[in-house]
Amino acid sequence: MPARLRRAYGTGYLHFITFSCYQRRPLLRAPQCRDLFLRILEETRRGYSLIVVGYVVMPEHVHLLISEPDQSTHSVVMQVLKQRFARALLDRLRHRNAPPPASLWSTVLQEGHVWQRRFYDFVVWNPHKRAEKLRYMHENPVHRGLVSAPGGWKWSSFRHYAYDERGPVLVNEQQPVKLNWKAPPLPAANDEREAR
Q1: How many CB atoms lie within 10 A of CB 127?
Q2: Degrees to nearest 5, angle at CA 77 with 53 and 58
Q3: What are the angstrom distances between the C-alpha of 120 and each of 5, 6, 148, 190?
Q4: Do the bridges between strand 61-66 and strand 14-20 make them parallel or antiparallel, or are there none, so unpaired?
Q5: Single pTM value for the model
Q6: How many other β-carbons are positioned within 10 Å of the β-carbon of residue 100?
Q7: Which of 54, 56, 85, 135 would give a disulfide with 156, using CB separation of 3.0 to 4.6 Å?
Q8: Spatial contact of 179 and 133, defined as CB atoms under 8 Å apart
Q9: What proportion of the chain, given as a percentage, has pLDDT over 70?
Q10: d(CA 180, CA 166)
Q11: Alpha helices in 48-164 (DSSP H)
Q12: What is the pLDDT of residues 48-95, one digit of tens each?
């Protein structure tokens, strides 16, 4: 780890974590890849007793707002999460019909890289920052033009906050955040502008 990169652990604060796919490739573009990632995130959450406050899975990156793990560090948890997803994704690719030679997936299989090496970690020390980070995550798919409203992106924690809906990852924060979001009528589970 570079000398200038410092991680703050043991503070009891939440952490806003961002990590990207290798070379910002859209490896999470397909809904089944995002579903796989969320399944592995939930397994990791349970395995490390994490409190998940929020999340969003974008086509080429992920944002998490989580607690510190009880028995480990974020560095270990991110390593486990990223490795487990990479192995599962690469196994799926190997067992499918061979992708076309010049495709994104053939490149991924040849190189074996799914994630950038590091992650960005911002310590969230107060309720205002926590709400700010949640809004940022939930609005990210709208700003990117993937959906028309945050509730249309099923790969985020927005629907938990707006509609008290249980998603694929348990949002188990013990100090709920009021987002002051006027929830529109419940949209379809996913109005994603598919097949981008």
Answers
A1: 11
A2: 55
A3: 10, 11, 28, 28
A4: antiparallel
A5: 0.80
A6: 9
A7: 56
A8: no
A9: 73
A10: 20
A11: 74-95, 104-111, 127-143, 158-163
A12: 999 999 999 999 999 999 999 888 899 999 999 999 999 998 888 776
